């Protein structure tokens, strides 16, 4: 074996390339055969080409105030077609249940009356906005775009780590990673059938157009960005360009008489759909932060009047609350009469039972502690890696506010060979699949964003914590060459390409709102609610490290 693998050691998690030392799994055989003959110097040259390409194109990421190329590892992550089908179905199922929950919680509130979710959980969440009550999108979609963060546990089972249905980011890196990898590993692409990712902008545009207000036949869609200082501005600009729509800032919009328009050189032009990349709190200074200069006054009133659609909808953050996450399996049973396809990571609720709280406080050094409204890895305490001072500090915070925390079992995330220096080393990864909901179907982008924790033993993969990314290849399940060539510049796709039956990683850029300015269904209910089966108590353990970086506009990345 070439020196790249000669001292490669399997780590504590499920190794996605090797079932046993020096024995690659079937999905990785072609990649392994390509890498094995290469010297570390040859692989290093290709890695340098990747980094230079990202830097030349301005694909950078701000970490602690320093712009750097977004780290893309040269070794891709590969997922078999049958495994992906499970992910696809499970993600879509989760989005359909959360759509039904958001419609319910901002409407009749039956889920609260039935005791499926405690009312106090909703009303005490920082991301539940009463201002959104009664706003009903005409096609029933509140989650137009979702990013569901997944991990593989020690047995290789995909589990949901958290949901991102506010403003999930990172999809631009999925597309750019693929373009770059097609050039540095062409021999692997020639021997592997990989599902393409370039249809994402077309799928997103179709979903946004489908969400237009009633009676609008040719809707005007815009992408609303906080501006060039946002760490995800590259993504905002890329998506606007690929969809062929205008990229606007709050100062470019005006709302009069519940009609929204954008200022152009030819005068004001009506706007029907706003794909916003700004947190709720900064979107409309009339209803939220009065000091916001990156939103537009009146947007919420216009949405309530049915004159404009805001995607994703205001108030979705309640579905991102990490305490609500523990109830999602019950929501799937309640709204869909189905069993969850993708299990959660085992999680303790700390505000339910004093005995559970006492147990967690006695075992802090064995668990992962997460603030329920945190993102970007901020506030996470991994007990086994924490100092006594850190454990004492988090104990005090939990005792004061049990509702503000969850505890999870520390999961050894799956591992993929990663180029570290001039050697391949096992590093932990997660996966953020992106889903697009057009009101009829939930389409899941085949691949998503694999994030990798670069320091040895690290479990936090967030970009804001110094993590990198990998190109994620989903195989077609058929032999032969690559499914589709990846062009230098992906064309704008208005009508999505056909896809297999569908059923909605992170993280791309960190979402640090413009300086201090930005922080923060169509699912039908079964007629017989009695058919819902409660899932019993929450599993008494669960976790994994936080994998969402603060999303450039709201949700985690």
Automatic annotation (TrEMBL):
Gene3D superfamilies listed in its UniProt record: 3.30.1490.270, 3.40.50.11290
Residue ranges, annotated region (Disordered): 480-557
Domain (Circularly permuted ATP-grasp type): residue spans on this chain: 76-453
UniProt feature, compositional bias: Low complexity: 507-521
Top-level taxon: Bacteria
Name by which UniProt lists this protein: Circularly permuted type 2 ATP-grasp protein
Organism (species): Phytohabitans kaempferiae
């Amino acid at each position: 074996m070439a020196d790249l693998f000669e001292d490669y050691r399997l780590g504590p998690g499920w190794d996605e390339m090797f079932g046993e030392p020096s024995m690659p799994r079937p999905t990785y055989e072609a990649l392994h055969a390509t890498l094995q003959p290469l010297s570390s110097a040859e692989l290093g040259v290709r890695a340098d080409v990747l980094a230079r390409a990202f830097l030349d194109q301005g694909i950078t990421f701000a970490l602690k105030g320093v712009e750097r190329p977004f780290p893309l590892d040269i070794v891709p992550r590969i997922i078999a077609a049958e495994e992906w089908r499970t992910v696809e179905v499970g993600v879509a199922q989760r989005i359909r249940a959360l759509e039904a929950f958001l419609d319910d919680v901002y409407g009749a509130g039956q889920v609260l009356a039935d005791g499926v979710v405690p009312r106090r959980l909703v009303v005490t969440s920082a991301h539940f906005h009463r201002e959104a009550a009664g706003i009903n999108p005409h096609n029933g979609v509140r989650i137009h775009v979702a990013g569901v963060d997944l991990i593989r546990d020690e047995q290789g089972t995909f589990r949901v780590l958290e949901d991102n249905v506010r403003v999930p980011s990172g999809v631009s890196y999925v597309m750019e990673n693929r373009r770059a990898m097609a050039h540095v590993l062409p021999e692997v692409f020639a021997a592997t059938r990989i599902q393409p990712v370039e249809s994402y902008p077309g799928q997103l545009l179709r979903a946004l157009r489908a969400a237009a207000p009633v009676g609008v036949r040719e809707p005007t869609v815009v992408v609303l960005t906080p501006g060039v200082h946002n760490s995800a501005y590259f993504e905002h600009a890329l998506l606007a360009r690929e969809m062929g729509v205008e990229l606007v800032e709050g100062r470019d919009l005006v709302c009069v008489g519940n009609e929204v328009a954008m200022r152009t050189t030819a005068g004001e032009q009506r706007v029907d759909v706003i794909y916003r990349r700004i947190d709720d709190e900064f979107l409309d200074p009339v209803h939220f932060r009065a000091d916001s200069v990156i939103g537009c006054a009146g947007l919420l009133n216009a949405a309530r009047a049915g004159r404009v659609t805001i995607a994703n909808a205001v108030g979705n953050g309640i579905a991102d609350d990490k305490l609500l996450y523990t109830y999602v399996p019950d929501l799937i049973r309640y709204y869909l009469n189905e069993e969850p396809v993708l299990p959660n990571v085992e999680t303790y609720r700390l505000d339910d039972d004093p005995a559970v709280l006492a147990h967690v406080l006695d075992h802090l050094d064995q668990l992962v502690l997460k603030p329920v409204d945190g993102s970007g890895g901020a506030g996470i305490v991994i007990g086994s890696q924490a100092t006594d001072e850190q454990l004492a500090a988090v104990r005090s915070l939990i005792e004061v506010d049990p509702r503000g925390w969850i505890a999870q079992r520390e999961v050894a995330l799956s591992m993929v060979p990663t180029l570290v220096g001039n050697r391949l080393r096992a590093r932990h990864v997660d996966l953020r699949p992106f889903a697009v909901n057009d009101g009829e179907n939930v389409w899941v982008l085949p691949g998503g964003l694999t994030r990798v924790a670069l320091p040895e033993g690290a479990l936090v993969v967030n970009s804001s914590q110094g993590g990198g990314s990998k190109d994620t290849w989903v195989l077609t399940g058929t032999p032969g060459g690559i499914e589709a060539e990846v062009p230098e510049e992906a064309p704008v796709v208005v009508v999505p390409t056909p896809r297999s039956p569908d059923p909605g990683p992170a993280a791309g850029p960190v979402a640090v709102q413009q300086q201090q300015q930005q922080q923060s269904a169509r699912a039908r209910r079964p007629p017989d609610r009695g058919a819902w089966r409660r899932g019993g108590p929450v599993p008494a353990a669960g976790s994994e490290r936080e994998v969402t970086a603060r999303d450039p506009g709201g949700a985690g990345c």
